[in-house]
Automatic annotation (TrEMBL):
Lineage: Bacteria, Pseudomonadati, Bacteroidota, Sphingobacteriia, Sphingobacteriales
Location of the active site: E76 (proton donor)
Family from the record: Belongs to the cytidine and deoxycytidylate deaminase family.
Binding site for Zn(2+): H74, C102, C105
InterPro entries: APOBEC/CMP_deaminase_Zn-bd (IPR016192), CMP_dCMP_dom (IPR002125), Cytidine_deaminase-like (IPR016193), dCMP_deaminase (IPR016473), dCMP_deaminase-rel (IPR015517), Deoxycytidylate_deaminase_dom (IPR035105)
Keywords assigned by UniProt, alphabetized: Hydrolase, Metal-binding, Zinc
Single biological process term from Gene Ontology: pyrimidine nucleotide metabolic process
Domain named CMP/dCMP-type deaminase: residues: 4-133
Cofactor section: Zn(2+)
Name this polypeptide is given: dCMP deaminase family protein
GO molecular function, one term: dCMP deaminase activity
Length: 151
């Protein structure tokens, strides 16, 4: 049986996560529309700046007040920024990501006009917080955001 496009795109996001230079977490994202890939991304610092796993191989970059990487972009941010930089239309796109969006990424996703999000693992579980604020935000404002399940 042929895999669904949803499975193909989530598998690609999982493979992209392996490209991350973050020493703490590896996250991948794929933006699509009508079974076509618009953009891809993975978490890490802005292109051309540094690679955390090379510059700070033991501990990674400095942490912000919430314990997150202070120098990295999230996978969703990288995918959205690359799409915008390339002139791609994001209105009506679907996002596949290996980790559910944080609240900041959720606001970007909503504002970019992305209309559906699939995620693999929970950001709340990863961070040890009470709820997936980004998922809650997106669902509240009409962007279906659901945990991916294989066909």
């Amino acid at each position: 049986m042929k895999p669904s496009f949803d499975s193909i795109f989530m598998n690609l996001a999982t493979d992209l996560a392996k490209r991350s230079h973050c020493v703490k977490a590896h996250v991948g994202a794929v933006l699509t529309r009508d079974t076509r890939i618009i953009s891809i991304g993975y978490n890490g610092p802005p292109a051309g700046t540094h690679n955390c796993d090379e510059e700070w191989p033991g501990q990674g970059c400095a942490r912000d007040s919430k314990g997150s990487c202070s120098l990295a972009l999230h996978a969703e941010e990288n995918a959205i920024l690359y799409a915008v930089k390339s002139g791609a239309k994001l209105e009506g796109a679907t996002l596949y990501t290996t980790l559910s969006p944080c609240i900041a990424c959720a606001r970007l996703i909503y504002s970019a006009g992305i209309t559906k999000v699939y995620f693999d693992k929970s950001y709340a579980e990863y961070k040890g917080i009470g709820s997936d604020e980004g998922v809650d935000f997106l669902n509240r404002f009409g962007v279906p955001t659901v945990r991916f399940t294989e066909d």
